[in-house]
Amino acid sequence: MTATLPRYDRKQSYIWNYEHAPPTVEIDIPSLPGAWTFCGREVPSPLGIPAGPLLNGDWLLYYASLGFDVLTYKTVRSRARECYPLPNLEPVRVEGMMRGGESAIPATVSMQSSWAVSFGMPSKDPDIWRADVERTRNRLASEKILTVSVVGSVQPGWSIDDLAADYALCAQWAKESGADCVETNFSCPNVSTCDGQLYLQADASRTIAQAVRQSIGDLPYVIKIGHFTSDDGIAALVDAVHDQADGLAMTNSVAATVADGNNQLLFDGQPRGICGASILEASLAQVERFSRHIADRNAALEIVGVGGAGSADDVKRYLSAGAANVQLATAAMIDPLIAVKIRQAWT
Ligand SMILES: Cc1cc2nc3c(=O)[nH]c(=O)nc-3n(C[C@H](O)[C@H](O)[C@H](O)COP(=O)(O)O)c2cc1C
Prior knowledge:
By secondary structure, this protein is of the alpha/beta class. It contains ten helices and 16 strands.
């Protein structure tokens, strides 16, 4: 049955895939026992898709029809941005599990279970995505959640306040278009230190989170973060954003450089985010660490578990580690029926 369901074609461009969203399907979706919530709203299941696979409203409605209940619209910006050239998804072979700090991971011809992701967060013009989000919310079943992921677009000479205003503008537009939740991607470079990532800088994260919160009122708000290699910085980040955001989604990916068969580095030697099964353990460990810190501080932050999940067991491990919801990107792109299979395997 899987073979008959259309999927993202990694050999084609982002634009080609954007224009070839599959139609929705009508299949039996087994219900998942239990009571589930996402940022205070009841949802039929904790199963979601993070920012990435859902390039536009048609992709979002396709995965909604396949048994996902919390659906994240791929990260958009306040201005149009081109996608990086192919390859956007380069399969890699990882021995064991990623821990962070790896380099020259070998690329492989066929997909095993992990890949390097290289899109550069492209975006359509705001007029296009705003209208598309509105149309999508109108078509999506009312019990499902539509989250819009946004990112600021740093311009030369900008301060952190300028960047915060840009994030806030996108967040406001997402809200006006009918989003049920806004997610800000903080796994991207800070303006003042171009090698630093926002989520690793508590003060900058707070400045942006405050601006976003002000622009969206009490709409659910989740911050997407990247990988922490140790406990350092976790308490500072929780303290900085817990009174602004409702949740933290982790882990975006684990960064590493990638090498071809001749040991030449791909992507001009720049690291890329490795996503898929090989980041499961690193991400689960991070969810555990954050849940401890959140509990210690009595902070009201929900965790969205992301990274490497591909089975009912993986989803349960995330829930046990402290996540309230679990989102699948790579596994859902490889097997569009994964939510149905997880529901069938749930006991
Ligand atoms: C095709 C693709 C595109 C992605 N694009 C984004 C993005 O635009 N914004 C973002 O925050 N994360 C993006 N990600 C990262 C995913 O949201 C997720 O954090 C990552 O894939 C780990 O989950 P997985 O192991 O289930 O794939 C992307 C991932 C993939 C596979």
